[in-house]
Amino acid sequence: MQAENVYQKAMGRIEYIFSRFDNICVSFSGGKDSGVMLNLVLDYMRSHKIKRKIAVLHIDVEASYRRTMDFVEKIYLDNLDLIDPYWICLPMITTNAVSMYEPYWIFWDRDKKEKWVRPMPDHPFIIHQGNCPFGFYHLNMTFEEFVSYFGDWLNGYRKAEKTACLVGIRSNESLNRYRAVSRKDKAMFEDKEYSTRISENTYNFYPVYDWKVDDIWIYNGKFDKPYNTIYDLFYKAGISLSKMRICEPYGDEQKAGLNLFKVLEPETWIRLVDRVSGANFGNIYCGTKALGVRQISLPEGHTWRKYCKFLLDSLPEETRNIYTAKFLRFIRYWNKTGCPVADGDIQRLNPDTIINTYEFSRRGKSDKYVVKFRIIPDALPGLDNKTDFLSWKRMCMAILKNDITCHTLSFSMTKRQILHQQQLLEKYKNML
Question: Of the four listed, 166, 350, 355, 373, which is most buried by Cβ atoms within 10 Å?
Answer without folding.
Answer: 166
